[in-house]
Amino acid sequence: MKYTLGKKERLKSKKLIEKLYKEGTSVKAFPLRMVFLQTEHTSDYPAQVGVSVAKRNFKKAPDRNRLKRVMRESYRLQKEIVYNNLELPYVFMISYLGKEEKNYEEIYTKMNKLLNLFIKDIQNISNEEYDS
User: Is pLDDT of 130 > 90?
Assistant: First the structure.
């Protein structure tokens, strides 16, 4: 598996993002929150991801950009957790909820926890559908 996060793996579609926030489910590992939705997308990859940091919590653009860069990097290095467990295509948005900037190590461990929670959640959903 390539540890890249190319253009096709990023969530860019405004329509998909809108649909994601309307119909999506979320999991949280403070200070990160993931909203996800099982839906078809244009990419060949099993998942498309976007990251966001609230302007309300971080007024300065360089601070927001740094946090987004760190979040993307920690996702990129751990995306195999997601890719090895998905059969259907998913889109998700990872948001930073905290008011203080965390360092890379903390974000990396929280991202790991978040991705594992996501996998657990979709496995529970698929088990419920299988049972009924």
Answer: no
Q: Which of 36, 40, 41, 47 is nearest to 81 (CA)?
A: 47
Strands (E), 66-110: 90-96
CA distance 35 to 53: 14
Helix (H, G, I), strand (E, B) or coil at 33: strand
Residue written as tokens 């979709």?
A: 122
Phi, psi of 84 (to 5 degrees): -75, -15
Which three-class secondary structure state does DSSP give residue 88? coil
Would you place residue 42 in the very low, low, confident or very high pLDDT band (cuts 50, 70, 90)?
Answer: confident
**Are 115 and 81 in contact, with CB atoms under 8 Å apart?**
yes
